[in-house]
Amino acid sequence: MKLRFIIFVGFSVVLNACNDFLELKPKSQGIAVNNTNVDAPLYANASEVEAALSGAYADFRNEYFELDYFVNGDVQSDDAYAGGDNPNNFQQDNFKIDATNKNVARDWGYLYSTIGKVNLVINNIDAVTDPALSADRKKQIIGEASFIRAFCYFQLVQLWGDVPLLTKGVKTISAEVLPEIYPLLFPPRTATSEVYQQIILDLENAAQNTAATAAHKGFATKGAANAMLAKVYATQEPHDWNKVKQYCDAVISGGYSLLPNYEKLWDNSIENSSESIFEINYFGGTIDHNWGVSIFRGLDWKKFNTPSNDLVAAFDAENDVIRKASTLVFLDVTGKWSDNNWPLTAYPFQNKYRKYLSPSDQNYIFLRLADIILLRAEAANELGDVAGAKALVNQIRSRVSLPNTAANDQAALRLAIEKERRLELALEGHRWYDLKRTGRAITVMNAVKGKDNVSLNYNLTANRLLFPIPQSELDKNSKLVQNPGY
Hints:
Layout: H1 19-22, H2 46-58, H3 63-75, E1 80-83, H4 87-93, H5 102-124, H6 135-160, H7 178-185, H8 192-209, H9 222-235, H10 241-252, E2 276-280, H11 293-296, E3 304-307, H12 309-317, H13 321-327, E4 328-331, E5 347-350, E6 364-368, H14 369-382, H15 386-399, H16 410-424, H17 431-437, H18 441-445, H19 471-476
Antiparallel strand pairs: 1-3, 2-6, 4-5
Helix pairs in contact: 2-5, 2-6, 5-6, 6-8, 8-9, 9-10, 10-14, 14-15, 14-16, 15-16
């Protein structure tokens, strides 16, 4: 059974504090402001701290994580077309985003809002003297909040590169403290390398102070922190493959196991399974339902993230029948809408998240063991252990009744692992980031074919590997500098 989070919304939003200075706060930066005396404790007791942490966890069910997480990870890749009718998504699909793109602005805002919430928890929990909040629980809460902050900054740094690094929350705004808080209200961008340093520190804290694992996979755990550390070390430049190996091994030996049947990951018969590492739980009803999945699946209007011809061709070329059936479903949409990429009698939708009728209690899996096993294979291959890498790839392939990989050298195995990650993790929001971190995005995307094997003529350049800083943020904060090419 699912365990409910305590939903606490709005704890760290801006209150009416010193009207003369309210206009100074760039709201989308996520600076959490409280109108109490600067020296007064922010939280009166243990319950308020727990509620604040729950409010941060609740953000994993906001629009960024319900919707844009998958648009950013899949539509910008060769796995999906924009679909739908949203011009902001079309810009992403065609690498023609500009600084006024609404998706870009709201993603920046959502992520910094969550960071603002956990900053208040991390910075103020030690002042709570309530005996109901033990020293061990304080450490665990800081670890969980640190994981959430790291998860959000990992999104930010992959999407924008250099971003403002904010680890302090603002408790009050007044003329007296303005010199101190001004840099928090109007921060410059921080070098990507420094942001990664903070991400790693936060994840190390989480790995040390959170529970090893949990039946409910919606909470930060040691396993989730180790999984994120593996992904971070595989993404930051230069890649540290020994660290990737270390943290992948920690996850693999940490009590997780692959489900014997791939389909069981997606048929909703097993939630928070042994393979799941970090999973966003929904419970349905009017307040806590997953509306995002209805944006990807359904016959009432043309949906977003339409699976691509190239993805279907990749499944077919590999004769990957099992994963294709779990990932894609083809339906007749004749008379409902038009489409340039697919026949209306066999129109594809994502099939991994199937409970699309509202109110949906469909969970989302953000981290799972197969991802980490394939990342471990990548590390082994880069460290010269081709045989070890092949064994891990074949472990994933055997589950879906595919023969062993034919790759026999490091270069061939790089491509085999890339393909295996694509087919195993398709439409889970990973593909674009995999292409970027391996340096393959421009080559792959500019070669993508569409219907009838005709080139889609993408013109992806290095300047389009990152989002623009939202124009609304540049207008508010003169210390921000736009990314090249925008």
